[in-house]
């Protein structure tokens, strides 16, 4: 069964009475080149396991199953069950877990399904849950080596933005704290069925053993980051002062000590400067 053929996909979906859910952000890949490349670049091999989020009709799933020792896909929409039974009938190293990836006990799932294996995440993520899913895997320190995910192109730019550049935001700094991100390749909207209104990109986040900066604790760092990017039109001094309820003069003093000019905007702060600000303001217990 050629799942990169649009006619075949339409026939399978019609045969099982499947209807697309706009609320679930369902757009299935139907380009023959995208999924093999994505599966290859995710890094999984015969001795490792892959956790997929949202298998769709199983195009990427089949490519992952051909390379990895085991594939487990999490899917919320039970109406895809008969579709996947047909399209993945020959994949003996595949299992589906029905549920919401944002609510499932992922620590338990990974422990039970991938015992002793290196685990990789590979998925075509629905746009509306991109950041929550990515941050859940990173913040909860789930035992995965890397996340290779297809996301909206604009989101890819934000997630992989370098601190100190205009595109950087709170999520960019958070991703950099936990991983080393990079954009792998772009995916035009014509590669999907139904076709979305935006283009996509595949990114890979290699999870770090240790953060790239030294701070008293992650909670304090993220409190400062949230404050810094909470009011992007303001200077870093004004944003941090308002977000942390600190005197502006104290924040300006800390910025100078961190080597940042007084009128700098938060997106221009490097990871090192964000960490140094955290350290300076934590010395006097100013970040709660």
Could you describe the 3D structure shown?
With 288 residues, the chain is α/β, with parallel strands linked by helices. It has two domains: 6-207, 3-Layer(aba) Sandwich (Rossmann fold), CATH 3.40.50.150; 218-282, Helicase, Ruva Protein, domain 3 (Orthogonal Bundle), CATH 1.10.8.100. Helices cover 38% and strands 18% of the residues. The protein is built from twelve helices and nine strands. It has helices at 6-15, 34-41, 59-67, 81-87, 106-113, 130-139, 153-159, 170-178, 218-228, 236-244, 248-257, 271-282, and strands at 28-29, 48-53, 70-75, 94-98, 118-124, 146-152, 179-187, 192-193, 200-207. The strands form two sheets. A seven-stranded mixed beta sheet has the order 4-3-2-5-6-9-7, with helices on both faces. The chain has a two-stranded antiparallel sheet with strand order 1-8. Helix 3 links the parallel strand 2 (48-53) and strand 3. Helix 2 (34-41) crosses helix 3 and helix 11 crosses helix 12. The relative contact order is 0.11.
Mean pLDDT: 94
Number of helices: 12
Distance N terminus to C terminus? 57 Å
Please trace the helix and strand order, writing H or E for each element.
Answer: HEHEHEHEHEHEHHEEEHHHH
Task: Looking at this protein, list some descriptive labels.
Rossmann fold; two-stranded antiparallel sheet; 7-stranded mixed sheet; single chain; Helicase, Ruva Protein, domain 3; 288 residues; 2 domains; alpha/beta; 38% helix
Q: Quick gist of this model?
A:
This protein is an alpha/beta fold and 288 residues long. It has helices at residues 6-15, 34-41, 59-67, 81-87, 106-113, 130-139, 153-159, 170-178, 218-228, 236-244, 248-257, 271-282, and strands at 28-29, 48-53, 70-75, 94-98, 118-124, 146-152, 179-187, 192-193, 200-207.
């Amino acid at each position: 069964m050629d799942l990169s053929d649009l006619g075949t996909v339409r026939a399978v979906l019609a045969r099982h009475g499947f209807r697309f859910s706009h609320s679930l952000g369902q757009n299935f890949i139907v380009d023959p080149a995208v999924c093999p490349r994505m599966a290859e670049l995710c890094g999984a091999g015969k001795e490792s396991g892959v956790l997929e989020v949202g298998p769709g009709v199983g195009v990427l799933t089949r490519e992952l199953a051909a390379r990895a020792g085991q594939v487990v896909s999490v899917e919320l929409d039970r109406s895809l069950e008969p579709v996947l039974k047909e399209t993945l009938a020959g994949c003996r190293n595949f299992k589906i877990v029905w549920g919401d990836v944002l609510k499932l006990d992922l620590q338990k799932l990974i422990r039970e399904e991938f015992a002793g294996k290196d685990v990789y995440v590979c998925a075509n993520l629905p746009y509306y849950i991109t950041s929550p899913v990515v941050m859940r895997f990173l913040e909860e320190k789930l035992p995965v080596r890397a996340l290779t995910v297809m996301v909206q192109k604009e989101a890819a730019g934000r997630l992989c933005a370098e601190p100190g550049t205009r595109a950087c935001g709170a999520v960019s700094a958070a991703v950099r704290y936990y991983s080393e991100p990079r954009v792998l390749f772009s995916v035009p909207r014509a590669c999907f069925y139904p076709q979305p209104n935006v283009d996509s990109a595949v990114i890979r986040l290699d999870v770090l053993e240790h953060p790239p900066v030294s701070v008293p604790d992650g909670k304090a760092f993220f409190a400062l980051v949230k404050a810094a990017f909470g009011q992007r039109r303001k200077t870093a001094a004004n944003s941090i002062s308002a977000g942390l309820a600190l005197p502006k003069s104290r924040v300006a003093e800390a910025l100078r000590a961190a080597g940042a000019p007084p009128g700098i905007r938060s997106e221009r702060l490097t990871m090192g400067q964000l960490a140094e600000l955290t350290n300076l303001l934590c010395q006097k217990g100013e970040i709660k």
